[in-house]
Amino acid sequence: MNSEWLSISVNLAILAALVCSLWLNLRFIASRRANRAASGQVPPCPLTVGDLLIFAALTAATLTVRSPLLLALMVTAGAALLYRRRDALGYWRFKLSETGAYLRDGLRGYLTVLLPLTLIVLPVSLLCERLGVDFTQPVIGLFLDLHSPLKITLFILTAVIVAPLWEEIVFRGVLYPWLKKYLPARWAMLLSSSAWAASHLHWPALLPFTFLGCALCFFYEQTGRLGVTVALHAIFNLTTVLLLLLLNHHGNWPPPY
Asked: Which of 160, 209, 218, 219 could cross-link to 197 by cystine, CB 3.0-4.6 Å?
């Protein structure tokens, strides 16, 4: 009975989030119609081609890392390298004192993108099911097979803190503004988001991740603060992890992603 009530509660929470997402999207559409000329707030990227190659190499290396501790060390080393070479925190407008604002705006962004992302995920997952292709990312299967509290904790910390921070630095903080120096913003969004989606090494989720990447670029462009996209990314991963934990322990209803 407890499992049944938990399932009902979670599904009601998901429904409420989708209704909230619909309301936010209607407001967003109305505001865009009223202010079509709004300009972006992401300045030109100060990094050189050499800087970009360094981060490309580090990013490629992280794709082969299975240890959360080693991944965290590589991310820390990469961030330290960038900060030593450029005033990265100033460029991305990272301020510890604004963490609350990042989380608030990130939650608003998450709820805004939730409904359109769901409308993309559902048909893609159904198509994969019809074709006999597993839509679920392999890393989710690895997570559900974990039983050690330490390993589960390390996985959650990696998914909620390390991965969002590193991926947003590389793809939204470095690659997107660098591409924007040479291409229109829309093309820079699409290419950087496609690269981010491809980095997950799971082609069935390529379209949903590309859309989510474009949304992250858009929110970065609107706010000029990379902390907002890090928070949105972290909230997305956190809700997915929590749903997976509930799925693994209390029933068979599927999480939305």
From this structure: 209
Write the burial class of residue 27 (CB in 10 Å: 0-12 exposed, 13-18 middle, 19+ buried).
exposed
Q: What is the largest CA-CA distance in the chain?
A: 59
* Gap between the Cα atoms of 51 and 114, Å rounded: 34
- What six digits make up the tokens of 89? 């925190």
| Amino acid in position 113 | V
For residues 222 and 40, the answer to whether their CB atoms sit within 8 Å is yes
Could you report the per-residue pLDDT of 71-90, keeping only the tens digit for each? 666 666 666 666 555 566 77
| Contact by Cβ (8 Å): 240, 255 | yes
Output Rg (C-alpha) for the chain, integer angstroms: 19
- For the stretch 236-256, pLDDT in tens is 999 988 888 777 655 444 444
Tokens 């609350």 -> residue: 100
> CA-to-CA distance for 217 and 171, rounded, in angstroms?
9
pTM of the model: 0.82
